[in-house]
């Protein structure tokens, strides 16, 4: 927790410098509380860095493709000159990401994660997949992660302005 707290403090200090007046001084504290609520429900005082990173990536303002690539980087394993994501790596990613909607009572069961994992690996003979297969599957908007592109689209529309006048 201390490591994540320090990381968040640095992250939000940098954000405050880049966007003066737009970052709440308690942002690091609030974010840490959210991460604890999502990933330390039993009160162990331990949150996996990778889980916290997945949540921060998912909740960031970056593009979907950038988020998907970052997920792959955090959960893939190196295999020679290429990185691969295994079934267990994908299961971990999906389980970690599903803690985000779970915090507001919108989680799916473990069977959803298993179904999504089988779907992603459908027709794959190897025990792991390359980034392009992973990205292709995510672009198909699997039901288990439908909330992610939906949230992205909602946040993207906040910046849209129309010059129409209402009566």
TrEMBL record:
<dbReference type="InterPro" id="IPR011992">
    <property type="entry name" value="EF-hand-dom_pair"/>
</dbReference>
<dbReference type="GO" id="GO:0099536">
    <property type="term" value="P:synaptic signaling"/>
</dbReference>
<dbReference type="GO" id="GO:0045202">
    <property type="term" value="C:synapse"/>
</dbReference>
<dbReference type="Pfam" id="PF09069">
    <property type="entry name" value="EF-hand_3"/>
</dbReference>
<dbReference type="InterPro" id="IPR015154">
    <property type="entry name" value="EF-hand_dom_typ2"/>
</dbReference>
<feature type="domain" description="EF-hand">
    <location>
        <begin position="65"/>
        <end position="154"/>
    </location>
</feature>
<dbReference type="GO" id="GO:0005886">
    <property type="term" value="C:plasma membrane"/>
</dbReference>
<dbReference type="InterPro" id="IPR050774">
    <property type="entry name" value="KCMF1/Dystrophin"/>
</dbReference>
<protein>
    <submittedName>
        <fullName>DYTN protein</fullName>
    </submittedName>
</protein>
